[in-house]
């Protein structure tokens, strides 16, 4: 092979790489659009009327995740599976948003933590690195932390909507999450920074619970006894 | 061109001979530096773990057992510091200071956090240094709780020289302590503990005033931390404020009730975590 | 004159200049020390017990300003008066701190704004540029803005200490300051940046007043009588 | 044409450009002054006493917009109409402030969103690009977002002033705005950043409503009847 | 809480209706912006390729054929610029200027490079703009050499409005041209071409003096390029200097020889590349 | 699985990751040591006496590459093959040095460009991305450019050593390389910057050739007729 | 005095200050224009044809300095003399350029160093600080260092133009300057950084002299007679 | 001990530290002055006339090192001997300069490398850390590298001065140094960066030798006999 031929070959490689990135970017934009639509739907739960509609909204969101999975399936075809980390930066942001949405829907449905396995399934990807396009630990945890902050807002708004028992349940859930995170030895990475924010969510929810307690409203909730 | 050829025969050159000596000296120094960095990293990790452990005091009733557990952990850390002292035997400690300063600062943070929880006061530099005099007896004592498979300290039976924390490391560790105290304060609020936040805010104000007394007359790293320190203090003051305004609403007769229910909830939580 | 002679001359100039700067630096260090001591004293007002001791602390601070004035008198002798702006950077930082301390003491004493004239007098310097070492408008205003931020902290802490009427008074004062600053046409200079911080102080204090008011605590304060 | 002549030509063009910019800057300064005065006036609504005076203040502000319109008419004469975007950076900041002031006045008057058409009219400019100096969508929306943040402050202060029904109305209005913004496909532009701030405003107002609702003060407001 | 519920029914809200209009306006604008960015990127790539092609003039004998080939390429680029002009029909070009400025600057660089090689002078802004008046005939002409599968311009048969390069894009393109001229100079030295470097250094000095005449009175981006421009000039001046001192050693009678052998070598090379 | 268990699992993941990086770093250090030793050996070719010993030195270097391959084999075992890009930054620098050394040895042996395939083989890794630890295009080209600069130095020193024909051969080779690189559409990445340096290597070698030409030394070399 | 009155006063101060700065900026722009024109003229000396025209160009430059002096006279009227250092940053850059131009013209005319006194006179300002607008030591030295770098360029270009004796004279002059600067105790200030550049100029010129000398060209120059 | 007392204690320690540093700085300034004077003297060797005066200049420099030793003796008294590394940063720069000057004088005298022991003796300090103020390996090597760069300049200038044999001797010496440095396992420290500069010195000297050799001047030198 002459030097010229070799370099022509190499140019082929370089061009192919740029094309892949272009393709990825396009699908990622569609994913972002889909994520935004699910978010708009779920934002409705903060409205006073939204509380009754949680099940409907969740069902709707579940449906909308179909589109996400379709785009994800498409995304996987855009690059060789073993080069996940080569292109990761392109989809990292939207993947964390999707992890948030998946865990949020899951929490609204059964007030429990959606595991990484389940979240990956909802999004339409793998859990295990070896099997290809997967939901990495860091991305999953980032999503969980965004959800925690959304729950602190939900605690405030459920009081406004007259639901006095939900904040206590949220409080217990968030405390459990906090204990979980304390088990991790986080370095000074982006995740650590996000985790520091969790403490404020915990505090805010505790204040709501405290407000309810001193008014005897938490007992009222107990007596009324939903859940 | 004869000279040139001759010099190419490097082995006989006095220059090469001299550089072989330098090579050894540099490698020795570098290896020691690397070893110290590793010990320092271990100290950092273990100190951070101790701090994580100590934060649990805001959510459990048996504070004493946590303090005891942290004693064990800190003893382990001190054994590592003894290893540093051993490495520094006969050396100028400032030559390698950069290698272990991070670990020592983190130890100061951990030990002063424990001290605050136990005594509600600031540990002094003298007190810290007093704990770093390694007697023969102590090293043997220290070995006992080593359930973890830590390698036996090279010190063996003979005692290591004492280690002296320098003032700037002390200051930097204490500066970081304030961040932990802030986290502890916010944790306490969450757990309905009314007293701790107020105590903490007074203590933190004293430390803050101390640092602003020193201001930018100390090392640059210290002045850099002033801003974070001020933010931590503001967060604690805000928390106390929130407690006060919310607390103002509570009917006196309900007080007992509130905390009874909180405690019950907390205990339930503990079962899970 | 040979090149060598010329450069020898120039070295003379440079040395003289460096000596002046060295002298200035020394006095400035003493000023900083004095300022830090006053600050440490006045910060005591944030402690719950500190509120009663405000008058004592102010009196003490007034005394300590004597030292400041002595050092200032010394500083003036270190360089020709008309070269104020040549060396300004050396003392600018401490001068703004002193302006802050002077206006803070003044506020604590009579809850009013210390004018630039008064502040200059407390510090022991002139107001008018032409008369030598003076307190420039920018430095005075920088000091006032530091004080505003200290007052927002004081509002929070006075509630904690059980004093519910002080925040309202602080709120009025800060609003007046804010209106004052809005008269100024600040360019994109350091002052402008600091002024943006004032908005947060205003908001923070408004939230304190809000918290008191929604709990009926501001009325309580009213009934208790003004201060 | 020699190289030197060519550069001389271009230098001529650059100088002309500089002159236009100088002229524009001068008028923009006057606009900024006018905007600052209207702002100072409207800031009064945050004062406890200011609530009753809202109509008067709005009327006054309406008058002051005359000056704005005069300066705007002047500004238009300073550069060729079809080069709006060439010089846009000079007035963009003040234009967004004016859009804020116009929508704020409008909201205070009738608690509804001032349309882009109305806002443009108040400021004295066009809506459509083809017709000359206009209020672009981005600038209008930036103004609306500044207003949203001002409304979150107003919600806090109306509680202090004893008006418990206003925060609920503000909350509804802001939620509507939030839904509106979520329709937009904002890129990583300045507007996006500002919009991220809206989340905090929404949250803050939700907390005010929460505070009222947990104390039964929102019902009180309802019973008192809608304004 | 009735009001609140009502507002939740978003579809009927005038606010929502207004925002739907905004959505459309913003999307339209954004789409146009994206299309322009893409065209600009294509222009950049094709202009860069033209520059690469033009650099071959230092190593071949048939300069004319390269110039012709570059004409074809630049015609293609101009067809893309016609697309921009079409997109901007009726718009304020400054509104979208950021989207295509990079491409236009690169085009200026390429076309001024070609112009220099052909005429050894600096192309003027007027000359550049004169080439960007798109007549019907031209667009048809331009389509002929489209062996490449470029999509047919949306312009179709009807002519696009003329496009005007603004002075700052012209200046920035010319500033980058100096970098290419420097590369060309160094290439010429390598190929034993004595005249070109000296011509280039004189020309580059004129351009450099022109830029220093404008100095920092122009847009910021221009002043930022002054430093690179100065470096390019220094490299060219160094190259001329090297030629002069080395050339001083050459015995006159050998001159012909030297270049004969160089040329032979070069031709051999060309066979490979 | 409880939340606690899940987080314990996750901590396991995180620790494993740090351990992998630690392992990689250790092997990379050994690779760097090996690369330095080969470099020291090959530097000898610049010495006047070194020219005759080129074959011996190359043979020696070939042997030393065994160690490199051993370490490389070791390195591959430290992490899952499909995560090449996850950890790439750790070995990128040394890999480019090795690519340089491999192409340099190859050139010294037969004055031709070692292809990417051959270079990968010498280093003991793959060429094709899919087959695991490979020599990426960018890293190979970076190595080639370092070699080019070493060759320009060699051209100078071969004249000193009295070898007048080598510079011409190097000149031809470097020109071929330069033509090859011109085929690539390099963006403004690190490679582009390195490539810009190639032009100076070309120029330097051309100057040497020119010096030889004007003295008729290049003909002398031709007549002597090596190659 | 009320807070409002006080701030109105202060705004007066600030406006006056801004007006002064605006005036200064305008004159400085004219100075920069004048400096740029002189520079463009003098840069002509680097052209092969320029060497013969040095005297003409210098005479022309001397004339153009008249304009500089006129603008300088104008600049002095824009602010009180004792506030030189307050506004110094506005003209510092152009002043150093002018010092460069003055020393460069002087060198071209008689190949000697223009003293600070002479340079100040050419620019139309004072030398002594006390007498008002002056040429400070630092600004003069900065100008001299820019000239040194221009001379290293001139050494290169004079060889290109066939003048082999000039580089030797420049080399001697620069060495003298270098010795002079080594007398100065420069701190880590901007001047220090510029001075580090002088070392490169010295080295560059030494290499030019070396190139001439190894080819026997410097002797040629000697024989041709000194200049 | 109260918190305040504890901080006062520490402040005391910090002040003492500052005082020591102030003392050290003063002596270091004198050392810098002394080093600058020796440097100015030795710079003379680059002058064409300087080559004959090398022995005289070296003798003179040897004398001037007395002053250095006096200041060094003084410096040692300013801080506790075992805290050398605590204050090292203050004298590190000048110490490396002195190591350079000592090795440079030594090379000029006998064209050999001055050992660390000898260099330390010339400067008036120890070699071994345990014995007090010493010349660390890194500082010695940094000095040697500065010397190497000075020698590359000397090689150029000796050709200008007509000494064609010196460059070859320098080339041998530098190559030996280069081999020595390649033995060292330099990390990413300042020394590493300086060492990277050595490559350029080696290359520069190789080019000088090349220039001599292609013109047959190196043989000429040989015939003239060894130095
Ligand atoms: Mn910490
Ligand atoms: Mn280019």
Helix coverage percent of residues of chain B?
Answer: over 70%
Kindly report the name of the CATH homologous superfamily of the largest domain in chain B: Translin, domain 1
> Which whole number gives the mean pLDDT of chain A?
89
Structural class of chain B: mainly alpha
CATH architecture of the largest domain in chain B: Up-down Bundle
By oligomeric state, this entry counts as heterooctamer
Describe the biggest sheet of chain B? none
Mean pLDDT of chain B: 81
Molecular structure report:
The complex is a heterooctamer, with six copies of chain A (227 residues) and two copies of chain B (273 residues). By secondary structure, chain A is mostly helical. Chain A has helices at residues 3-43, 54-76, 84-87, 92-110, 116-123, 137-160, 166-183, 190-214, 217-224. Chain A has two domains: 1-135, Translin, domain 1 (Methane Monooxygenase Hydroxylase, Chain G, domain 1, Up-down Bundle), CATH 1.20.58; 137-227, Translin, domain 2 (Methane Monooxygenase Hydroxylase, Chain G, domain 1). In chain A, helix 1 (3-43) packs parallel to helix 4 (92-110), helix 4 packs across helix 5 (116-123) and helix 7 runs antiparallel to helix 8. By secondary structure, chain B is mainly α. Chain B has two domains: 1-165, Translin, domain 1 (Methane Monooxygenase Hydroxylase, Chain G, domain 1, Up-down Bundle), CATH 1.20.58.190; 167-273, Translin, domain 2 (Methane Monooxygenase Hydroxylase, Chain G, domain 1, Up-down Bundle). In chain B, helix 2 packs antiparallel against helix 3 (63-87) and helix 7 packs antiparallel against helix 8. The longest helix of chain B has 42 residues, at 14-55. Mean pLDDT of chain B is 81; it is low at 1-10, 139-157 and 252-273. The chains are: A mainly alpha (227), B mainly alpha (273). Chains in contact: A-B, A-D, A-E, A-F, B-C, B-F, B-H, C-D, C-G, D-E, E-F, E-G, F-H, G-H. The D-E interface holds D 1-4, 6-11, 13-15, 18, 82-86, 88, 112-113, 115-116, 129-130, 137-138, 141, 168-169, 171-173, 175-177, 179-181, 183-187, 222, 226 and E 1, 3-4, 7-8, 10, 13-16, 18-20, 22-23, 25-27, 30, 90, 92, 94-95, 97, 121-122, 124-125, 167, 170-171, 203, 206-207, 209-211, 213-214, 217-219. The site of one manganese (II) ion has 4 residues of chain B, from helix 7.
């Amino acid at each position: 092979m002459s030097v010229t031929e070799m370099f022509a070959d190499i140019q082929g490689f370089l061009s192919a790489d740029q094309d892949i990135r272009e393709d990825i970017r396009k699908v990622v934009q569609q994913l972002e659009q889909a994520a935004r639509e699910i978010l708009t739907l779920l934002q409705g739960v903060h409205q006073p009327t939204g509380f009754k509609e949680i099940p409907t909204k969740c069902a709707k969101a579940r449906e909308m995740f179909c589109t996400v999975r379709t785009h994800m399936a498409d995304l996987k075809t855009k690059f060789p599976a073993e080069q996940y980390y080569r292109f990761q930066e392109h989809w990292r942001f939207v993947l964390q948003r999707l992890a948030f949405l998946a865990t949020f829907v899951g929490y609204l449905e059964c007030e429990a933590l959606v595991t990484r396995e389940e979240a990956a399934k909802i999004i339409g990807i793998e859990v295990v690195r070896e099997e290809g396009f997967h939901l990495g630990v860091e991305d999953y945890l980032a999503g969980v932390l965004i959800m925690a902050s959304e729950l602190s807002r939900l605690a405030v708004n459920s009081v406004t909507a007259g639901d006095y028992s939900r904040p206590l349940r949220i409080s217990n859930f968030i405390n459990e999450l906090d204990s979980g995170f304390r088990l991790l030895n986080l370095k000074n990475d982006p995740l650590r920074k996000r985790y520091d924010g969790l403490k404020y969510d915990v505090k805010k929810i505790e204040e709501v619970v405290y407000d309810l307690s001193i008014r005897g409203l938490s007992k009222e909730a107990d007596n009324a006894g939903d859940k | 061109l004869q000279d040139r050829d001759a010099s190419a025969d490097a082995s006989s050159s006095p220059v090469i001979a001299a550089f072989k000596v330098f090579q050894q000296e540099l490698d020795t120094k570098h290896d020691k530096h690397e070893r110290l960095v590793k010990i320092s990293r271990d100290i950092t990790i273990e100190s951070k773990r101790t701090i994580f452990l100590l934060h649990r005091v805001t959510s459990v009733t048996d504070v004493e057992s946590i303090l005891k557990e942290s004693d064990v952990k800190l003893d382990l850390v001190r054994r590592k510091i003894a290893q540093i002292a051993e490495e520094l035997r006969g050396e100028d400690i400032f030559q390698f200071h950069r290698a272990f300063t991070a670990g020592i600062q983190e130890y100061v943070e951990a030990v002063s956090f424990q001290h605050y929880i136990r005594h509600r006061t600031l540990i002094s530099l003298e007190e810290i240094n007093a704990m770093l005099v390694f007697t023969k007896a102590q090293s043997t004592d220290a070995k006992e709780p080593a359930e973890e498979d830590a390698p036996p300290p090279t010190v063996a039976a003979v005692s290591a020289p004492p280690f002296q924390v320098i003032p700037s490391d002390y200051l930097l560790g204490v500066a970081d302590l304030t961040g932990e105290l802030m986290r502890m304060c916010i944790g306490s609020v969450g757990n309905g503990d009314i007293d701790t936040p107020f105590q903490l805010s007074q203590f933190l104000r004293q430390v803050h005033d101390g640092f602003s007394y020193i201001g930018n007359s100390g090392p640059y790293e210290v002045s850099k931390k002033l801003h974070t320190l001020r933010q931590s203090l503001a967060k604690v003051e805000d928390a106390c404020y929130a407690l006060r305004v919310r607390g103002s609403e509570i009917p006196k007769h309900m007080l007992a009730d509130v905390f009874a229910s909180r405690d019950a909830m907390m205990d339930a939580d503990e079962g899970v975590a």
